[in-house]
Amino acid sequence: MPADRGQAAGQPTISEVAAEAGVGRATAARTLGGYGYVSPELRERVLAAAEKLGYRANALARSMSTGVSHTLGVIVADIGNPFFAGVVRGICDTSRARGFDTIVLSTYENLDEEVAATNVLIDKRVDGVIIASAAVGRREVAHIRAAMDRIPVVLVDRAVASLDLDTVVIDNRDAAREAVETLIAAGHRRIGFVWGPPAAQQPVTRRGLLAEASRNLWTDGERLRGYLDALDDARIPFDPELVMVGRKTEERVTEEVARMLSLPDRITAIFCTETDGVTGALRALRTAGLSCPRDVALIGFDDSAWAAVMEPPLTMIEQPVHRLGAKAAEVLLDAIAGGEPARETHTLRSRLIARSSVAPPPGPHH
Ligand code: RIB
């Protein structure tokens, strides 16, 4: 007999237990699902048949009857990215310690994928969802609002201005400002920004960049604002030629950094807002026969083990990735346990790890 939907292949089904017990399927379902009324005599027969056949309750079916699955859903941009892998580790360690399983889905910053992932998790009857969302504008959050109507939702890594939700992020704008201030303190004024909003129109203007940033990933916009804060504080004029815009790929970073290096008044430092930006920039330096930090200084976001063993060891911004995930899970589990969602933003501190990729700009001959 075909397995009931959702029953593992080879496992006895509710229908088979019902036949063995000599009761209707609905009676067996109520008994095994723990809901509705069943007479003691029939309950006894069903449980005996289930034990005889080795029936294992389908967790999804049980959650449908009890309304609780003891499972969290997590939606991130890319589980292969060390940043998100660290965040998910923090979520899983915390949820497991409180008796919850975790289902993780990747969306690759694609909003359609995020909508589909949200629906999958609701169908799986997770008890709550943590989302690092690619959504930004008011119109893009219908899927999150639909989820909020049914289960607790917590945002991690990215805030979404139009949603009044518990959110766990880091101090992106301050971290970016501190990094660029470090480059300015070393004597740099021509500092490339990698990478800016993906769709900023040409010619690039400060206003256009900020407008575009508000329509794209929250973290990118906050880091752009930190870069501009540091330039403004040092009275360094903003030069749109020093900002990479457009499609965000490592290859394009290499192209854009090569362009900035070929300017008559070339860049002498680079601030990268993501790991892919760091590798793309270093590739451009090598192609141009330039070295870091002798010819070009560099600071990037998202410290990692490889950044510390590079030559030179890179000065990077370290995000408390495990703590980000653990905090998001704690906030969500408290909401699931019945706590009224506080709907507040928790901002964790990042750390600038000073290593050896920052030095003063080369002499006037550069
Ligand atoms: O791709 C990972 C990066 O984007 C991290 O800096 C994280 O903050 C995310 O927003």
Mass-distribution shape: elongated
Count of DSSP H/I helices: 14
Termini separation comes to 78 Å
Ligands (ions, cofactors included): alpha-D-ribofuranose
Physical arrangement of strands within the biggest beta sheet: 2-1-3-4-5-10
The structure class reads alpha/beta
The total domain count is 3
Rounded to an integer, what's the Rg over CA atoms? 26 Å
Q: What order do the SSEs take from the amino end to the carboxyl end, as H and E?
A: HHHHEHEHEHEEHEHHHEHEHEHEE
| CATH architecture designation of the largest domain | 3-Layer(aba) Sandwich
- Which CATH top level class of the largest domain fits? Alpha Beta
Estimate the strand proportion. 5-15%
- Write the CATH fold name of the largest domain: Rossmann fold
The biggest sheet amounts to:
6 strands, parallel
Number of strands: 11
- Looking at CATH, the homologous superfamily of the largest domain is Response regulator
Q: Kindly state the percentage of residues in helix.
A: 40-55%
Point out poorly predicted stretches: none
Report mean pLDDT, rounded to a whole number.
89
Kindly describe this structure.
This protein has 366 residues and is of the alpha/beta class. The protein folds into three domains: 64 residues, 434 Repressor (Amino-terminal Domain) (Orthogonal Bundle), CATH 1.10.260.40; 127 residues, Response regulator (Rossmann fold, 3-Layer(aba) Sandwich), CATH 3.40.50; 148 residues, Rossmann fold. Helices cover 43% and strands 13% of the residues. The chain has 14 helices and eleven strands. A six-stranded parallel beta sheet has the order 2-1-3-4-5-10, sandwiched between helices. The protein has a five-stranded mixed beta sheet with strand order 6-7-8-9-11, with helices on both faces. Helix 13 links the parallel strand 8 and strand 9. Helix 1 packs across helix 2, helix 1 packs across helix 3 and helix 8 runs parallel beside helix 10. The longest helix is centred in the first third of the chain and has 16 residues. The radius of gyration is 26 Å and the shape is elongated. The termini are far apart. Alpha-D-ribofuranose binds next to loops. Keywords: DNA-binding, Repressor, Transcription, Transcription regulation. GO terms for molecular function: DNA-binding transcription factor activity; transcription cis-regulatory region binding. This is LacI family transcriptional regulator. Pfam families: LacI, Peripla_BP_1.
